[in-house]
Amino acid sequence: MVKSACGFQVSESIGMRTVFIREGTPLPTALSIESEAFLPGWRVFKIDRQALTREIETVNWNFFYLAGEIRTTVFGRGGLGTLRRAVKRIVAKQEGQSFRFNSLEITKIASKWFLGIPFTSIAAHSRHIQLGIALIPAKDIAGRSLTAIPSARASQQGNVVAKQYAAVISNS
Hints:
Blueprint: E1 2-3, E2 9-10, E3 19-22, E4 35-39, E5 42-45, H1 49-58, E6 62-65, E7 70-75, H2 80-95, E8 103-114, E9 117-130, H3 138-142, E10 146-151, E11 165-170
Antiparallel strand pairs: 1-2, 3-5, 3-8, 4-5, 6-9, 7-9, 8-9, 10-11
């Protein structure tokens, strides 16, 4: 274990496929996986992503993987301080997304040198742990009334073509 300047105890085994979770995220009660503080408001799971996925799916919850890499580059060798700065930047980029995901997976770490200066590039993907199968928070669905709206194409004479398509539109 390594004690960082922030006072957090973090294992040195953090690397690719490491999953971080936002503090306060609802988890299944049957899930007994240890985590430790990494950044203020974020924890790191002490097991790898595959084992975490199996544990979550065993209790019939879902662990979503979202496309779209979030990348950052920070100066420094691949030590714990460099990794902490990189994850902090990725979390800040993730906060700018429209949907607030509750976890994050490191997918690539590359430490390199350019003109004698060490830097580390990190890529991550947003993840989300929840009970339902729809990637919409239940609290958002409950308060909305959804309406199906038929759509149609007008012909040149002003008549409507008979084929209709349904679209779901939120009234909120």
